[in-house]
Amino acid sequence: MIYLDYNATTPIAPEVANAMMPYILKEFGNPSSSYLLGEKAKKALGKARGQVAELLGSKTSEIIFTSGGSESNNMVLKGVAFSSQVKGRHLITTAIEHPAILNPAIFLMENGWDVTFLPVDQYGLLDPNDVKKAIRKDTALISVMHANNETGTIQPIQEIGRLSREHGIFFHTDAAQSIGKIKTDVSDLCVDFLTIAGHKLYAPKGVGALYIRNGIAIVPLIHGGGQENGRRAGTENVIMSVGLGTACELAGKHLEDYTDRIIALRDRLHDKIVKKAPEVVLNGHPENRLPNTLYLSFPGMVGEKILDGIPELCASTGAACEDRSVKISHVLAAMGVSREIGMGAVRLTLGRPTTEDEVDQAAEWIIKAVKGL
User: Fold this and answer.
1) Where are the domains of the chain?
2) Rounded distance, CA 97 to CA 116, Å?
3) Digit-coded pLDDT (tens) for 50-64
4) 192 Cβ partners below 8 Å, 6+ apart?
5) Domain 2-8+255-372: which CATH class?
6) CATH code of the region 14-251
C-alpha cells in the first residue's frame, strides 16, 4: 500500500505518540486541580500552548485548544456574530472554502447575516481587489483560507490582512492545510484569527487550536467553566494538546528541509505521469501552491474509476469529506473547470514519510489504470 492522501489526514508522528504516552498511562490529573497531579497537567498544557505559539510567532495567551479545525472555524464565525464588538452583519468569504467555513456561513445567512462569496480565477486564486470592492460599512468579518485543501493554491493572506486592518474589520484564515507545510507567522499574515487542525500535521484527530489576537473578545461557542481563559469551557484535553504541541515543535524544526524534499518528490511524480499521459491537466496554481499537493485531471475520465482500479493506492478525488463524489468538486466548479476535466480529478498529496520509490510506483500504477480505461 502507498499512501498519498496527506491532505486528508496524516499518521501520528512517533515523537508525538511518545510525548502523549505519560498522560495516557500515568499523568491523568485535571489542570484545574491545585494539588501536584493537577499542577503537572497544567504545566504540560502550558508547554504545549507555548509550542503552538512558537510555530505561529504568537503569544501563548493567544492560543486556545479546540477539538479540531471545524470547531475553531465555527468558534470564529459564530463568536464574532454574537460579539458586542461587531459593527455589522456582513461576512466576506470565498466560494472555495472548506465546508467548515461554508456551512457556518450559511447558518449565519439563515440568521439574518449577509454573506458575500467571492470568486477565484482559473488557478483558484483570490484577487485582493475583489475583497476591497466587497467591503461595506457593515462588514464585520473576512474569512479566507490560507491554502486550499484540494488544489493547494496559496491565497494572498497578507494583502487581505492589511486591507482588513485599514478598514477595522476582523480577519480570519483557516490554515488547517498550510500549518507545517509553509510559514504561518500570524504577524506576517496580519490575521486576527487562525485555525489549526492537528491531524493535518502528524498529531491525532480530534484536536486543534485557534489563534485569537490579544485584545479581541468574542462570544464562546461552548459555555460552562472558565477554562482557556473563559474562551472555551470544558476540562482541557491534556493528552491531545500535548500531542499537538509536540507536532507543532516538530513542524517548526523540519519546515525548510521538508519543503525542499517534498517539492522535488511532487514534481518527480508529476513529470512521470505527464510523460506517459501528456493530456493530464494540473488543477490549481502551477507555482503558488503547497509543496506537497498535486491535483491532476484526466480529461474524459472519472477520477473515482481511476482510483478504483488501484486498490493499493490511497488517494482521493478531492476533499476527504466529499471523496468519491459523483459531482464535480465545488472548488473546481468555482475555478470554471469544465465537467469533462473536473470529473477526472485525482488529488495526490505527499508527506514526510513519502519516498522516491513510492512516487515512482504510484506513477506507474496511475498510468496503467488510465491506459486501462
Assistant:
1) 2-8+255-372, 14-251
2) 12
3) 999 999 999 999 999
4) 164, 170, 171, 172, 212, 213, 216
5) alpha beta
6) 3.40.640.10
